[in-house]
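Notebook entry, structure prediction.
Reason for the run: the old model in the group folder had no record of what sequence produced it. Starting over properly, with the input documented here first.
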Amino acid sequence: MTVPPPFQSKHPPTSFYRSVLHAWNGLVHTVVHQRNMRMHVISGLLVGLVGAGIPLGLAEKVILIFCVLLVLFAEMLNSALEQLVDLAIQQFDEKAKLTKDIAAAGVLVLAIGTVVIFAAVLVHNAATIFSNLAAIERQVLWGVPLTFFGGALMHEQKKPVWLDVLFGVGALGTWAVTTTWTESQVFSAMTLGLLVVCGAAAISRQRAR
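New structure, fully documented this time:
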């Protein structure tokens, strides 16, 4: 009895580097073309600044980081589903609309849940916050421009290259200052990662012009 050969794809195997590159391109594309994704990135920057400015327990850190990543993942999954539905349905269909609405509702539920968890963490650490008001004010003083620079890099309005460079330098500069007093290197690293995403979105828009 002849054993059939194992299935082999007609397409050449994709290297790990190319797989990561494709995934990165998908992330940047979602940030560039989805306004809600940009809002989630800004929210992630704010969470990163809070986590770096307030001494939190390990469990609280893990929960906040997981919530941020889960919301970003859900938004990307929702965007992919929207693209798939639009590809399959070339004209208006009530069921297709309902599919996209339900997927968006799932992201909304996660976002609301994240806000509730974030508020619960702040309330639980109210005593710590009030005992470190000077450090909190310093974090806000530098965090506001950092968030502004990140949002400006992602903004869909056409900008000259020099302005994006200015925003990028400003974002990295303010982030570097906040690392000198950070309470968590992990949250600082997450903030940097999100700023890199913001910069990549700006580069993608410049290339598309």
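Summary: Helices lie at 16-33, 35-53, 58-88, 94-124, 126-131, 133-154, 161-178, 185-208.
The old model has been moved to the deprecated folder.
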